[in-house]
Design brief:
This protein is mainly β. The protein folds into 2 domains: 32 residues, no CATH class; 387 residues, 3 Solenoid (Pectate Lyase C-like), CATH 2.160.20.10. It has 1 helix and 44 strands. Strands 5, 6, 9, 12, 15, 18, 21, 24, 25, 28, 31, 34, 37 and 40 form a 14-stranded parallel β-sheet that branches. A 13-stranded parallel β-sheet has the order 7-10-13-16-19-22-26-29-32-35-38-41-42, with no helix packed on it. The chain has a 7-stranded parallel β-sheet with strand order 20-23-27-30-33-36-39, with no helix packed on it. The longest helix has 7 residues. It is elongated.
């Protein structure tokens, strides 16, 4: 019988406990009585194509199916899956204790079709996920109750299966903010490719984090639909849209909209890269965003900061209290008279983009042409100075010449008391998407301090607590090494 040694640092007591897994009795040591949750030793189970579900699940006697492991494994357990294509739609619906994950690890060699998660604290990692064909569901399908799920290091490739998502949220007949909708989910370091006619990731619930994922080569699809409350999309690289000619599909990097009381508020979109190989003749390429209000005004308060956008169509914004801070907009084209950001002011009685902030951004080569357009009000009304903060932006054509259109779209004048209209951009290497500032950049120390909103730049460098900030996504750091471009950038050409 194995002996476990548990140290309780708060009281300096050492407890010896015999290995009776999931024992249900109190322990007495030195007059101390421990009641409550039993001490549990986690188990490791094994699955292999050569196995049998009648086996014990030990390394020398593995199970044949992942579903068998899902039916048996409990809190703290790990399931290691061997090489091969299992092709299962695994349902994980048992209850797992709070704070103790059950881990399913594909070890980078196991292929599966789908995991449906309806239990808290489930970790899915290192799988190759492909082969699913069920429309409007996901390779990772987060059902109600899937709180605290951790989706890590998977390769998700739907092979352009119609309307199959990488990660899907299911909210049943409830709203995306119902307490049972999956919350506190982390989606990190996954590779997602070949999504078709749907969306890569739908976010619902509260306090979810999507961080450091790589997405590429999606067709007639969006990257993110964002609902719920206090969700964060950070540090993702999303490059490569494909459009079916004359399909009529509308593609967005991120989108929200109001239907049946769908809330979408207090969202953070930060430190991401969204890009496309720029083609000014393609009117169907993806746009930055479509932020649409609902009638109940449950969509508001978005922070969009430290992102890099290039080669896309304009962003449509029709919701209150959106803060565009320290982004880079490079070659953001529009087939209308507006610019890189179009603020829809009271459009059709549904949109109400009050309290907008557009501060410290770079707008380089944006708008319908090199003479006009970087941001605008969609209805061409008079300048709304009482609820807007628009200033400290750098705006220029690709050749460095000034641009004219400002706020609103029909007013051909410069409107920024502290902005920089034209001049050298002074980026390190714009053709390689290196938007770090050179030491002599005129954008240094020309931005407003926004430390009451956030404290770091696109690469994680600290921004000053006091004093002026740099304009753009990257704060100048003299000692910083050259940015190493991730593999996702390879093959992307920036047109002059």
């Amino acid at each position: 019988m194995r002996v476990m040694c548990l140290s309780f640092r708060s009281c300096g007591i050492i407890i010896l406990y015999t290995d009776l897994k999931r024992a249900l009795f109190p322990l007495v040591f030195g007059g101390l009585m421990l009641w409550g949750n039993p001490l549990v030793e986690a188990a490791t189970y094994y699955v292999a194509l050569s196995g049998n579900d009648a086996n014990s699940g030990a390394q020398t006697a593995p199970w044949r199916t992942i579903q068998k492991a899902a039916d048996v494994a409990g809190a703290g357990d790990t399931v290691l899956i061997g090489p091969g294509n299992y092709g299962e739609c695994v349902k994980i619906c048992h209850k797992v204790s709070a704070g103790a994950c059950v881990t399913f690890d594909g070890q980078g060699v196991a292929t599966n079709a789908q995991f449906q998660i309806a239990s808290p604290n489930v970790r899915i990692r290192n799988f190759i996920l492909t082969g699913l064909t069920t429309k409007f569901t996901g390779a990772i399908d987060l059902r109600r109750g899937a709180h605290g799920a951790y989706i890590e290091g998977n390769q998700i490739d739907t092979a352009y299966a119609d309307s199959v998502r990488a990660v899907n949220w299911d909210f049943g007949s409830q709203t995306p903010i119902d307490p049972n909708v999956a919350s506190r989910v982390t989606i990190t370091n996954n590779s997602i490719a070949h999504i078709y006619n749907t969306v890569c990731i739908i976010l619902m619930g509260t306090n979810n984090l999507v961080v450091n994922n790589r997405m590429r080569d999606i067709r007639d699809a969006d990257y993110f639909h964002v609902f719920g409350v206090s969700n964060t999309v950070r540090g993702n690289i999303c490059i490569g849209f494909e459009d079916t000619p004359n399909s009529g599909n509308h593609m967005d990097c991120f989108q929200t909209f109001g239907l049946n009381g769908h809330a979408s508020k207090h969202m953070i979109i930060e430190e991401n890269v969204f890009g496309y190989n720029y083609n000014p003749t393609d009117v169907d390429i993806a746009q930055i965003c479509q932020l649409e209000q609902n009638l109940n005004h449950e969509i508001h308060n978005w922070d969009i900061r430290n992102n890099i956008f290039f080669g896309l169509l304009k962003g449509e914004c029709g919701i209150p209290s959106v803060r565009w801070h320290n982004n880079v907009f490079y070659q953001i084209w529009t087939n209308a008279s507006g610019g890189a950001i179009i603020i829809n002011w009271a459009e059709s009685g549904r949109n109400n983009a009050t309290n907008a902030q557009i501060l410290n951004n770079v707008f380089l080569g944006c708008g319908k042409n090199d003479q006009s357009g970087w941001y605008s009000v969609g209805d061409g009304s008079s300048i709304v100075t009482n609820t807007w903060k628009v200033d400290f932006n750098y705006v220029a054509a690709l050749d460095g010449s000034p641009k004219r259109a400002g706020l609103p779209q029909t007013n051909q004048r410069w409107y920024e008391p502290h902005g920089i209209n034209g001049g050298s951009d002074c980026f390190q290497d714009i053709r390689q998407h290196d938007f770090r500032l050179r030491q002599d950049a005129p954008l240094r120390n020309k931005g407003v301090n926004l430390s009451n909103y956030f404290s770091r730049d696109h690469t994680g460098n600290a921004r000053p607590v006091s004093g002026n900030w740099d304009i753009g996504a990257m704060q100048f750091v003299a000692s910083e090494n050259r940015v190493v471009l991730p593999p996702s950038f390879k093959g992307i050409v920036v047109h002059p």
